[in-house]
Amino acid sequence: MEDDFVRRWESQVKKGTLAFILLNILRDNEYYGFELMEQTRRLTDIQIAEGTLYPLMNRLKKENLVSSKWVEQESGIPRKYYKLTGNGISTLKIMVEYWKKLEESIDKII
Amino acid sequence: MEDDFVRRWESQVKKGTLAFILLNILRDNEYYGFELMEQTRRLTDIQIAEGTLYPLMNRLKKENLVSSKWVEQESGIPRKYYKLTGNGISTLKIMVEYWKKLEESIDKII
DNA sequence: ACTTTATACATTGTTATACAATGTATAAAG
DNA sequence: CTTTATACATTGTATAACAATGTATAAAGT
Q1: Residue A34's pLDDT is what?
Q2: Is B13 in CB contact (< 8 Å) with chain A?
Q3: β pairing state of A79-84 and B31-32
Q4: A44 pLDDT above the threshold of 60
Q5: pLDDT over 60 at B2, yes or no
Q6: What is the reported pLDDT for A75?
Q7: Partner of B12 for a Cys bridge, out of A15, A28, B23, B70, CB 3.0 to 4.6 A?
Q8: Where in the sequence is the domain holding A25, given as residue range(s)?
Q9: Are B57 and B68 contacting, i.e. CB atoms less than 8 angstroms apart?
């Protein structure tokens, strides 16, 4: 019961948080989908479902926060690399400001 | 456009975060609905819509994280006071752990 | 007297998002 | 030759924030 609520809560916390994490990861490098899942897992211990990541990246692309390009591999399936756009960089700055303020507020009450 | 994305993002961040904030506020005192909106506004600068708060409190009650009691006023409309249950206290502890870990991870990448 | 503003709780409909399930395809390892 | 890992994608479901709307009391403004 209790665990069930926490599980659902964690899923809700990810709404918004995931996009924020992914944009932050893309600030330093270009990455392709699977790599983004690995990086997120490594950096935050959050396991992103594939059914979450790909629609999310498409949304970010549609919003013009990231751009993508296909890169053929000598072996295996082509990879779609994502990169922050100028708009993505400036939007991320606003998001970081909001997050820091939120974090600070929550730190005071927990 | 950009602002539009940020506005929607902030709304998404609130999913999960709001429940967490409200439970934390209720850790120290009993509060009624309107007071919870004020406290949240004061402590986090987040303006909770009424259409968000009341269904949210009902969910928390249904999940047995809070209990409520009506208190008649000498003047004005009766108030419904909310209080953390034992289950609410222990669940909140788990949530705080998750949040601290998340916060720490995000701090490293922003 | 009448209107506005603030308090107090609540429901309905809309929108956005995480995620399980499922699908397609390549290639290395057992 | 079957399993596992890589790689991208879609569909359907559940959940939650919020605008809009509704009901009701009472103080303050004009």
Answers
A1: 93
A2: yes
A3: unpaired
A4: yes
A5: no
A6: 81
A7: A15
A8: 2-109
A9: yes
* Four-residue CA torsion sign, B41, B45, B48, B49: positive
Total domains in the fold of chain B? 1
Residue A71 sits in a domain of what CATH number?
A: 1.10.10.10
Q: Tell me which residues of chain A, numbers 80 to 109, contact chain B at a CB-CB cutoff of 8 Å.
A: 87, 90-91, 94-96, 98-103, 105-109
> Are the C-beta atoms of residues A82 and A31 closer than 8 Å to each other?
yes
Contact A16 B2 (CB under 8 A): no
pTM given for the model:
0.93
pLDDT of residue B74: 83
Residue B74: both structure tokens together: 């000498």
Q: Residue A2: its pLDDT value, please?
A: 56
Cα distances from B26 to residues A44, A95, B30, in angstroms, run 28, 28, 6
List Cβ neighbours of A17 (8 Å cut-off, separation of 6 or more).
B13, B102, B106
What Å distances lie between residue A50 and A36, B24, B55, CA to CA?
Answer: 10, 33, 31
Please tell me which residue lies nearest to nucleotide D15, judged from CA to C1'.
A12
Query: Where does the pLDDT of residue B3 fall: very low under 50, low under 70, confident under 90, or very high at 90 and above?
Result: confident
Q: What angle do CA B89, B73, B49 make, to 5 degrees?
A: 55
